[in-house]
Every structure is written in structure tokens, then in C-alpha cells.
Amino acid sequence: MLTVLPTDTRLGELWPDIWQATGETLLMVALTMLIGGTLGLLLALGLYLTRKGGLYENVVVSVVLNVLVNFFRPIPFIIFIAAVQPAARLIVGTGIGFSAVVFSLILASMFGIARIIEQNLVTVPPGVIEAARAMGASRARIAATVVLPEALAPIILGYTFAFVAVVDMSAVAGLIAGGGLGSFAQTFGYRQYDPTVTWVCVLILVALVQVIQLLGNTLSSRIMRR
Amino acid sequence: MTHPATVAEPLVRLRNVTKTYPAARGRNEVRAVDDVDLDIAAGDIQAIVGYSGAGKSTLVRLLNGLEPATSGSIQVGGTELVGLRERQLRPIRLGIGMIFQQFNLFESRTVWGNLAYPLQIAGVAKAEQQRRISELLHFVGLPDKAHTYPRNLSGGQKQRVGIARALTTNPSLLLADEATSALDPETTHEVLRLLKRVNEEFGTTIVAITHEMEVVRELADHVAVMENGRVVESGAVYDVFSSPKQPVTRRFVGTVVDDEPDAEALAALRSRHPGRFVKVELREGGPRQTDIFAVLLERGISFELVFGGIEEIQGATFGNLTLALDGPETSVDEAVRELAALVTTKEV
């Protein structure tokens, strides 16, 4: 009889570890989205406000921010995580383990998130901003009370997209012993010829992504419908 | 002994106003507004017409400092705007409302939230905000739409919200940038009537940018015509409509008022009507149609109105009538001479 999945799997005894790894992934991603998401938003505002025709148009700042983002964004995370190890040692005190992974994730995701959110902000019609200026609103007030609320629906979709990308990136954490589902699947699934374990990890990740995508879509369309 | 007439200071006073956009890659310097002088009296409705690119949109943005003027003087309510910084312009803008072709409502806020926004900037107390918003929603006829989001409103309703929002801070000046250009004729009429009421009930001075002479006729007291950044003609709407001087003004007036048939129309008319074609200009206070027709009837000339008509603007009538005159040549000659003595005529 042809068996797709071998019967000699250690899945039964590994369940507690799988749940722990799931918890690690969730924590990694949550911390990244919280800190990297905030820093990314600030960076996005910087890119958006200083661009040509922006509320705080500033060629120098705009060029510097763009070069910075374009420098970090294309680096594959598997290389990025190794490249920023010295910085991780300096800032979080260690080049390996959970903290080092979260540090790298925050740094890498923040540039990607900045670009995504910047593109969301650009969709705000210039006329609406002009209307607020005509009412005597200050530039900072316009950024906070017009630009962000008007772009909220696409921003939520942008963060949802970023969330899924961070889950993907977090799988590389095993490289520096960072834990999580990705490295668990590699260690106990792939390297020990136990595809059952691999697939269970995959399914948990898929379920996680589905839930988040559903949440993001629902929230965004609820805002857009009003 | 005569007293020197006390001329009220205009609310808006422009002198030698110029706005240039510096040359950039692939484009020469653009002089969007070129040496414009314009006075707008308090309580007036001033229309500014011109084709796209004539500079009217830039001109209206100079009036609240959304665009800084390059040179000249712009006074609104006695305050000089040229040279002010963004920070200094902000309190002035609270006294100048603005409405837009695309309405520019905040989609993320309800109608109520849209009206509250300028009041929040002005730092108006919550209770006063509520009173003001509810008063204005009644004024524009949308009291039941307070908690509706703009996307669920029709174009006309959106513009009424735009008008209400622009009026929350009791501005003395309202700038309307092609406010009806995105609306159908019926809705345009409603919005113009509302603007008229704003002017009459609140005494708000209105500066309306438009490319539609119909809007000028229905709304404005005065009109300025712009071409290539310059104001080429301006005056009371009746005067400009009844005797346009510049070619561009004639083209604009011609879109709503028939002047004389062009060559093509003339050829078609001649093929259908015999006789000599004479255009007669009737003006308020001058000879009336009956006076004209009496001259013709007296000489037994048969005549027909082949082009033109009578218009009413601001309660004053005028018209350009092209008549086909048919009869014995000597009688027609005499009649034409007599008409020319009465009114302005032109053989076409």
C-alpha cells in the first residue's frame, strides 16, 4: 500500500512543543507588528509629508528617507538577519535567540511597512487636504486628523499584508536559534524526515494567516462601507 | 458745498497681483496670474470666468493664501495677505470659506463630523458647535443627513454639505471654485439658489470661479473675464452681457445670449428668408420692440425675426434681434436709416 505520510511520526509526543513554537511565532510577529508597525508608520509619514507637493515638502529629507528605505528593503531576510547581528548585539545585547530575531524582524519590516503605508497615504485626494488647509488647519493637524483617517481602510489592508509577510520572515528565525513554528518545522519535520510534523506546522501557519486576513478584510471593508 | 463721497472700502482689493511658477524641467516659467487689479465690494457676488488655464483657479487660491502671490498686494478685509507665512494665514482662513468642484468632503467623517471640523480648528465650544451645525444643516435643507457618510449622498447634497461646512465659522467671504461644474443642470440651479440665499441672508461676499456663463447670469452681480492670467474685462453682469468688448468675452456671452448669426448660420438663413438682414440691439431704457416694429409697419415692410431674442439679466432686459426685411428697396433703405437713428443696428 502506498502511504503518502509515514506512520512512524513523532507528532503525538511533539504537540506541547508545537504549541510552544506557535506561541513563540505569535509573540515574535506581535512584537514586530507593534514596534515595527509604529516605526514604519512614522517613516511612511516622513516619506509622504516630505515628498514633492507634500505638506512638509523637503527634498533633502525625502531623498535621504528614500535611499534608506530602498537600501534595506531589497535585502532578503535570511541575509539581513545575519548582516544586522552586530547591531543586534549592540542594542539588545545578543546576536542570537529570540530577542535578536525580533530586533531583526522589526528593523526589516519597518522599511517594508513604510513603503506600503506611504502608498496608502498617497491615495488621499489632494483636494481634501486643500479643503482642510482652506479651513485654517495646521499641517500637523491635517496629517493626524485628515490624512490618516481618510487612508485608514487601505492602511488596515496594508498592515494585514505586512502581517502575513512578517509571519513568512519569522520562519527564518531558526537561523539564529530564535524559535517559532518555522524553525520547529525545519528541525523536527524536515531534518528528521517527519513530513507529518512539517505539515502540521504549515497548517497552523496557514490557519493563522487566514484568520488575520479575514480580520483585516472585514475591518477594512467595514470602514470603507460607511 | 459738496461732501466728498465716502466710498466703502472693498472687502477684497487686488493690486498688480502676479503669480508665476518657476521654469522646471521641460516647461518654461508660467505666469498664471498676470498683473491683476480687482476690487470686490462687501456683500457682492463676483464671478470670474475664463477657459481652463486662464488663471482663475490660481487667482481664487491667492485670496486665501493657498497659493502665495509672487508680487502685488492682496487685501482681504483690510489685511494684507502677500508676504504672510502659513502660520499667520491660518486665523485669516477661518474667516474665508471655500467650496470645490469635487466637494472635497472628509469621507471618513459623517456630515456632522465634516461641519464640526472647522469649528474644532476655531476652538469653538462643544455646545456652540452643536447649535451652529444644526442651524446650518437646516439652512441647507439636510437636517436628516447629520449622521450620514458623504459617500451615501448625491452630488447636490454633497455640495450643500460643502456649503454648510464652509459657513460654520461665519466667514465674510466665500470662495466657490467651479462649485457647480460637476452637477447636472437641475442640481446646479438648486445650488446656485442656495448660494444666492447665503449672500442675501448672511451678507456673505461670494467669489465664484466658473466657465459657465449660465452660472454668471443666474448668480453674479459682477463678472471679471480672464484670459492668459489677465483680467481682460470686468463690470456689472448686465453691462458685460449686453455689450461685451473683448473677443473672449463675446465668445463667453455668445454661449448663453445670441448676438448675430455666424457665417454658416447666415447662409442657411438666407436660403430660407428673402430680404435684407439687419441686427437691432435693444437695451434697457432704450427704444422697445414696439418702437422698432412701428417703423417697419409704417412703410409696409414685411419683416421676420430670424435670429436672436430677448434676455433678462438682474431684472433688466436686452436683446439682439436679427430681422429679415422684405419690401420695395427705397422703403427698406429708409427704414434701415430710421432704425439706425433709434438704436444700434448692423447689416449682416
Automatic annotation (TrEMBL), chain A:
Family from the record: Belongs to the binding-protein-dependent transport system permease family.
Record-annotated membrane-spanning stretches: 26-48, 60-84, 90-113, 151-177, 197-216
Residue ranges annotated for the ABC transmembrane type-1 domain, each copy included: 22-216
The name this protein goes by in its record: Methionine ABC transporter ATP-binding protein
Membrane topology: Multi-pass membrane protein
GO biological process: D-methionine transmembrane transport
Organism: Nocardioides luteus
Entry superkingdom: Bacteria
Subcellular location: Cell membrane
InterPro entries: AA_ABC_Transporter_Permease, MetI-like, MetI-like_sf
Lineage start: Bacteria, Bacillati, Actinomycetota, Actinomycetes, Propionibacteriales
Keywords recorded for this protein, A-Z: ATP-binding, Cell membrane, Membrane, Nucleotide-binding, Transmembrane, Transmembrane helix, Transport
Main location: membrane
Gene Ontology cellular-component terms listed: plasma membrane
Pfam (any one): BPD_transp_1
PANTHER family: ABC TRANSPORTER PERMEASE, TRANSPORTER, PERMEASE PROTEIN, PUTATIVE-RELATED
GO molecular function, one term: ATP binding
Automatic annotation (TrEMBL), chain B:
Domain ABC transporter: 12-253
GO MF: ATP binding; ATP hydrolysis activity
Keyword list, A-Z: Amino-acid transport, ATP-binding, Cell membrane, Membrane, Nucleotide-binding, Translocase, Transport
Example GO BP: amino acid transport
GO CC terms in record: plasma membrane
Signal peptide annotation: none
Translocase among keywords: yes
Spans through the membrane: none
PROSITE patterns, per the entry: ABC_TRANSPORTER_1, ABC_TRANSPORTER_2
CDD domains associated with the record: ABC_MetN_methionine_transporter
Family assignment from sequence similarity: Belongs to the ABC transporter superfamily.
Function as written in the Swiss-Prot or TrEMBL entry: Part of the ABC transporter FtsEX involved in cellular division. Has ATPase activity.
PANTHER family: AMINO ACID IMPORT ATP-BINDING PROTEIN (PTHR43166), METHIONINE IMPORT ATP-BINDING PROTEIN METN (PTHR43166:SF30)
Subunit (UniProt): Homodimer. Forms a membrane-associated complex with FtsX.
Name recorded for this polypeptide: Methionine ABC transporter ATP-binding protein
Lineage, opening ranks: Bacteria, Bacillati, Actinomycetota, Actinomycetes, Propionibacteriales
